[in-house]
Task: structure prediction
Amino acid sequence: MRKLYNFVAFQAAWFAAVLGAAHGREWQGLLAIAVVVAVHLWIARRRRGEWLFLASALPVGFVVDEILHRTGAVVGHGTIWPASFAPAWLLAMWPLFATVFGESMSWMRGRHAVAVVFGVVGAPLSYLGGMRLGALELHAETWRWLLPVAVTWGLAMPILTVSQVRLTAPTTPPAA
Result:
C-alpha cells in the first residue's frame, strides 16, 4: 500500500508542478510538492536518513538542471526567480523524485546499470511530457536536448541510488 501511495502522490505532484508552470501558476506545483514531501517525511521509516537523502537530491538536481538550462537543451517556464536560472518548480522536482527511491522504485536499489538505463530512457520521456503539457521547451534539434538529458540523468541516477542506500540504511550499534 505504501508503494502505491508513493507512486500516486509522486505523479499527482509531478502533474501539479508541470501544469502549474504551464499556466503561470508555479506556486501551485511548489505547494503540491511541499505537501507530498512533508507527508513522505512524516511517514518515513528512517526519517533522519530520508531527510538527508531528499536534501542531497537538491545539489544533484541543481547541477543537472543548470547544465540543461545553460546549454539551452531544456528551458523551463518559471516566474519565481530570474530566467537566468532553471525554474524553482524544476529544482523542487528533485526531492519529490527522491521520495520514490525507497518506496515505489525500491526495486532499483543496488542495480546501478538499471539506474543508468532508467535515467537515459525515463528522463527524456518525462521532459517530452513536460514539453507537451507546455511547462518547458526542448531545443529544436532533437540531439541537442536528448543527448544532454540522457547523459546528465544517466550520471545522476546511480549517484541518487547510492546516496539513498547510504543515507537511509539502518544504523547498527557498535559491537561491544
Notes: The chain has one domain: 2-168. The CA atoms of residues 52 and 167 lie 7 Å apart. The helical segments are 2-22, 26-43, 47-70, 88-98, 112-132, 142-168.
